Each structure stands twice: as structure tokens, then as C-alpha cells.
Amino acid sequence: MKMADIDWSAWEPTVRATLLFIWRDGQLLLIRKKRGLGAGKVNGPGGKIDPGESALEAAERELHEELGVRAIGTVARGALSFQFVDGLRLHVQVFSAPDCTGVAVETDEAVPLWTPVGQIPYDEMWADDRVWLPHMLAGRPFALRALFDGDTMLGHALDLP
To answer: How far apart are CA 69 and CA 92, in angstroms?
Structure first.
């Protein structure tokens, strides 16, 4: 399968999810994921959108469930569309917030990692993160489409509207 094999104009996700990055004092609040898709990888806090829930509500709920903190001033940043060779079609809405209340703690789902922006561990993250995350950090909206076979990115297209 290749990117050209996918009709992105008719593409519909099987799963909708979110990511929410707290970014304050030159640091991003990342997590080391303990279970589920991407277990062991460094990522942003997030997860699936529940029925009847908005993407923003899901992002803020997942942040609290995973790390025990609540976002302040959440802003929509971009969107990610992932087609996996195994058939999973995942759409992720990405948010960031300049601050949070509470202290990030380890939970059953995640270990918190306050990371200086200049030291983001891209080698421990999904391959697409190094493509779009710098645009989020620069305040540019983005939309990424990517094809994965397991953990391996086979191709991607980045739109910067």
C-alpha cells in the first residue's frame, strides 16, 4: 500500500481521538505511554473521543485522566489523519494550552515528561511527530495525512493552510 492508493477525499476515520500539549516556560508536557496504541512511545496526552463529546472536551478529559492536571486556555492547532495498513483509520485533533492547574502525576496510562522544547525526543516518538510538531510549536495550523505499517511510516503529506 502507498499514499497514492488512498482516496483521501473519501477517507473516513474508524477512530477519532485527540492530543493536548501543555506548553509553558519553554517546556512541553509529554508522556511515555504505558498501554494501548503506541505503548512505550513518547507522545502528547490524549485519547479517543467518547460518543456525544466534543474533541475539546475529550482532549481536556484525557489530559486529566492521564496526568491529573487540567488545561488552561486550550486552543485547536491542527489535525492528523492516519491510515494503517491493517485497516485502522485514525483522525486526531491536536490542541495545545499555555498552562495547566495541578501537578502532573504518573497514572496507569502514562508517565509525565516535562521536556525542554529544544530536547524533544523525536527518536522515541511516532515518526510523523517530527514532521508536524515543529509547525505546532511555531503557531502554524497544519493538517497531516500519513500511512503506517505498524510503527513504520510509509509516507505522508503535510498541508500548511
So the answer is: 21
Q: What angle do CA 13, 58, 117 make, to 5 degrees?
A: 95
- Residue of 21, 42, 32 whose CA lies nearest to 98: 21
Tell me if 142 sits within 8 A of 135, measured CB to CB.
yes
pLDDT tens readout for residues 99-123: 999 999 999 999 999 999 999 999 9
DSSP string, 1-67: --GGGS-TTT---SEEEEEEEEEETTEEEEEEE-SSTTTTSEE-SEEEPPTT--HHHHHHHHHHHHH
What is the pTM assigned to this prediction?
Answer: 0.96
Rounded Cα distance between 29 and 113, Å, is: 6
Cell (9 digits) for 138: 511555531
Alpha-carbon gap, residue 68 to 102, rounded angstroms: 7
